[in-house]
Automatic annotation (TrEMBL):
Class of the enzyme per the UniProt entry, highest EC level: hydrolase
Active site residues per record: 217, 219
Region (Disordered): 1-34
Any one biological process term the GO annotation gives: L-serine biosynthetic process
The protein's Enzyme Commission number: 3.1.3.3
Organism: Nocardioides zeae
GO cellular component terms given for this protein: cytoplasm
Cofactors, names only: Mg(2+)
Keyword Amino-acid biosynthesis: yes
PROSITE patterns, per database record: ACT
GO MF assignments: L-phosphoserine phosphatase activity; magnesium ion binding
Domain ACT positions: 42-113
Protein name (Swiss-Prot/TrEMBL): phosphoserine phosphatase
Amino acid sequence: MSAPADPSQPRPTDGGPAHPAPHGSPGAAFPAGAPGAERTLLLTLTGKDRPGVTTSMLGVLAQAGVDVLDVEQIVLRGRLVLGLLVTAPDAPAEVDRLRDEVTRAATAVGMQVEVEQGTGDNHSRGAGRVHVSVIGAPLRAEALAEITGRIADAGANIDRIERMARYPVTAIDLHVSGADPERLRLSLAAEAARQGVDVAVQPANLLRRSMRLIVMDVDSTLIQGEVIEMLAAHAGCEDEVAAVTEAAMRGEIDFEESLRQRVARLEGVEATALDEVYAGIRLAPGARTMVRTLKRLGYRFAIVSGGFSQITDRLSADLGIDFARANELEIVDGRLTGRIVGPVVDRAGKATALRQFAAEVGIPVESVIAVGDGANDLDMLGVAGLGIAFNAKPAVREAAEVAVNVPYLDTIIYLLGISREDVEAADAAAGLVTPAPVAG
């Protein structure tokens, strides 16, 4: 009979052998001379970027027989910054020789290099890791200074910065560690409001990469304006209907009752008005780019609306949307009756639709993104793994996990770690030109 397992020993996972903690990991113990305590060299190269710089440096390091532990490289306006963390040779004379060889190689390609001796690898970045997305149009240095200052005040550190877009907004992604996510979110939300920028804080985990379904409101989100107000213009009661719409979106009156009141005022309007309204609909800037990009990545797309299926069905066909849920206007003898067929798609109905769409796709609601702007979107924003308030009413902005206040709908893709450069490259490969979204 075998002895019971020692709980202090590493346990195999997924049928493979047990592995010791990686170098520098919390809890890893290293005797003198062990890899976790090994001497290392940090090489930092700067200068005008050109082909072959990285290859040249790695060639010198290869001849020295050292191991690469980490690499970071960035190019800004043609200037290269390359960082290489490598193991150090054992003998001091070999370190000096490597330093000389690296310096000669860097000089040969017009670069400056700094070689710094040290011990070990990077510090662990495992605790409190979040992505902080900052979006501005423009992004002022003062705003970014205050945002990064709040991160420092929270005791967190910025480990990496990436630019996600430079137009029509400037969007950057800060990789932050050591943060209390909720405390940081509250602090940055207040600062973002003062600075007039958008800030989103998301956990740096696999959930961000597991999103597979986006469920979106239609009126004043996917499209500009409210369809019922466009229909009301044909009935001559536009101002009256608009007032009821605003009250409903602010949550001041029951949505279902307000909808029935507004629809009743459309009695007698010719059904052809729906054709005229659809022809005049303007998508939100960046809508087509957002849908095309996310569907290219395998996302399924759904729209849910307190508006009308006679419009959403056409939008679905036009944009290649997978699912749609909306209210159906009753039409008799070619005219609107002022009534709705079936149950109303209201605040609860939108959340129910989201759950049903997720079940049909076969994913948990944690893998769903919801986007909306009004009070009747709150339930679905709360149910989804990521709820985004898009140019929303104040109460919705405060309740949502993330708020976007620029008018460009494709800004949402930057929150998912997708850069505009990636979008344009994919479009170019498909023979398309990515249009620059224009607000208006």
